[in-house]
Amino acid sequence: MDSVLMVSDMVWIQRGVAKEIPDKIKLTQDELKELIEGGGGAGAESTDNESDGEIEVEEEVEMKQVKQEKKVKQEKIEVKEVEMREEEEDDNDFEKKYLKGYDLDEDGEEAHGDNGMRGIAMYTNNKDDPYVTNNVDSDEEEEKDEIIVRKDDNMVAVAKIDKGDFTLECYVYNEADSDWYCHHDYILDAPPLCLEPIQHDPGNEETGKGNLVAVGTMNSEIHIWDLDIMNTVTPFITLGAPAKKTKSKRKKRDGSGQGHSDAVISLAWNRITSHVLASGGADKTVVLWDLDEAKPAQIIGDRGGEVQSIRWHPNESTFLLLGTMKGHVQVVDCRDILGQASAAWKFDGQIEKVLWNHFNPFTAFVTSDDGRLRYLDMRKPGQCIWEGIAHDGPIGGITLSALTRGLLVTVGEDEMMNIWKVSDTSSSIDKVHSEKLTIGELHCAQFNPDVGAVLSVGGTAADLIRVIDLTKYESVVTAFRN
After folding, report:
1. Using an 8 Å Cβ cutoff, are 470 and 453 in contact?
2. Pfam families from the xrefs (predicted)?
3. Among 86, 235, 311, 359, which residue's CB has the most CB atoms within a 10 Å radius?
């Protein structure tokens, strides 16, 4: 990874999901020192725990959760104490508050002494001056303005690999102002391979909703970060235990020691059953995680190949679409404890991406490393509705507009972005526009969930990310005018 520069994945967060003013953790001197010296990131605690094989996986997860919650609660307490001190104006404290700096004699008259200006004190900070009662901390106000996330802002989480440095970066995009900037980031301890937004927060007792992102990594763990908390150096939750920590292959009775034994290469959050996250691994298995319990709920056994891509059905909570590096495409009903596929296909080459057509949820798009784009109907296992060569080489990204019916975009390692129009009958597809982008090989693409024609693309060169408004292309506007 020392020579790799790329955006491996990116996901959009819907408007209104992110907290308007994120919580900001103040790092201690020890934590700052640890971070600077390279001991920070999600693996800081893991390194310490490797020498103690007696610490259980769930205990480590709980410790991280408790630590995170304590930091957020402490900061809220500190803010509350400051507010209470500023609002406290008890009459009994009048002299202490307003006559500080004056020396009164027994008659209550000022004793000026030799210095006639003794009562006029000089303060380096207005907050320390008792005579400034309407003090506003300009630094705090300016900082608040810089980190605020407006209701019409989208957040975009980006997984970046930069020659041995691994980060999860959070950008903000505003359609009206065309704003695009990095809001905050997190340091990762392993190469990020895939991302998935999660709007279920097991720590939120009021609404249960949150602004989380799951990161699949090379070391078999899934790190879940809370995007509404800035400056944190540890993930909110860690799912799975790396093999190097496990002294015995014997599975624990409660299942909490189970998980992937190799890299996590695909993720999918169940929007209908919101406490369930699915992950596909290089170990050829699919794991269904219970986010409330932070442990596996079900293991779906060997899929015949590394599970490169998985997607939950948009309307059915139990159906999972997956594609493997051995060319398998399967639809699995997770209620089947044996994990048998209810529909299956086998193609040459490896499957890169699978994607449900949410405008016609009986159908799905499939891309592969030979540049082929295929369209499948779940009611016709083993058959293709249509297929064709879409790129010269692997198709690393495919995305379907959330709002514009039939607007499909594919990107590939040939550095090309191709725009397609899928017919209403789904019997054909037409290329509307093709363009070579200037950010190297393209590995991911995703449409904005709130804007029909805006998408982002991740590459391997230059600025790595491109946000594209397809309404700027006349051919696209013409094709989708009616």
Report:
1. yes
2. WD40
3. 235
